[in-house]
Design goal:
The complex is a heterodimer of chains A (111) and B (116).
Chain A lengths: L4 E3 L2 E5 L4 E6 L4 E9 L6 E6 L5 E4 L2 E5 L5 E6 L8 E9 L5 E3 L3 E6 L1
Chain B lengths: L4 E3 L2 E4 L5 E6 L6 E7 L6 E7 L2 E5 L7 E4 L6 E5 L8 E8 L10 E2 L3 E5 L1
Parallel strand pairs in B: 2-11
Antiparallel strand pairs in B: 1-3, 3-8, 4-5, 4-9, 5-6, 7-8, 9-10, 9-11
Classes of the chains: A mainly beta (111), B mainly beta (116).
Chain lengths: 111, 116
């Protein structure tokens, strides 16, 4: 079983639609990060959230860290084909020194 | 600095052969991580270094895998007697840290290993 459960596993939407990706766990994390990965490349860091309840915005992307620091969400407004990719959440355990990754959400935005 | 570099990008090897991958991290970063990623999965932790010290190794990692980071700069990951199950993308990442805590990783483009 995955320590971090991401949902949905796959999402195919039309350009202009909104979407939300979820990352859930029963464990508490000291921080949580979101990455985007394109085929054949390494993941690229989008954001780090540290404080429970924290909300961060990056252009059309909104990231939220749950109050209990066990879950997070990524919301994309008016998706564009360039948003297509694999979105990964990754958590740092308290007193840990590495990231644990979810299985990822494959997003496909059709024009 | 051009980021994290990994070499080679692709490696095809016969079962039973040994392979070695290299990672050059961002020069200011003191932590270096190795992860493995298979199709449809997120990266899975293998091992990490703080400077030249290997501080943690996954219990899932068999003794056929070994990693080094001489002088706290580049790192190598060696797989001995490769098996078909070793086929995966091997990702290296580096980060800058002070004390406890985990900071954003910068990943390389990975080495895609295919064992035939």
């Amino acid at each position: 079983t995955q320590l971090l459960e991401q949902s949905p596993q796959f999402l195919s939407i039309q350009e202009g639609e909104n979407l939300t990706v979820y990352c859930n766990s029963s464990s508490v994390f000291s921080s949580l990060q979101w990455y985007r990965q394109e085929p054949g490349e390494g993941p690229v860091l989008l954001v780090t959230v540290v404080t429970g309840g924290e909300v961060k915005k990056l252009k059309r992307l909104t990231f939220q860290f749950g109050d209990a620091r066990k879950d997070s969400s990524l919301h994309i407004t008016a998706a564009q084909p360039g948003d297509t990719g694999l979105y990964l959440c990754a958590g740092a355990m308290e007193y840990g020194n590495k990231l644990v990754f979810g299985a990822g959400t494959i997003l496909r935005v059709k024009s | 600095d051009t980021g994290v570099s990994q070499d080679p990008r692709h490696k095809i090897t016969k079962r039973g052969q040994n392979v070695t991958f290299r990672c050059d991290p961002i020069s200011e970063h003191n932590r270096l991580y190795w992860y493995r990623q298979t199709l449809g999965q997120g990266p899975e932790f293998l091992t990490y270094f703080q400077n030249e010290a290997q501080l943690e190794k996954s219990r899932l990692l068999s003794d056929r895998f070994s990693a080094e980071r001489p002088k706290g700069s580049f790192s190598t990951l060696e797989i001995q007697r490769t098996e078909q199950g070793d086929s995966a993308m091997y990702l290296c990442a580096s980060s800058l840290s002070s004390g406890d805590g985990v900071y954003g990783y910068t990943f390389g483009s990975g080495t895609r290993l295919t064992v035939v």
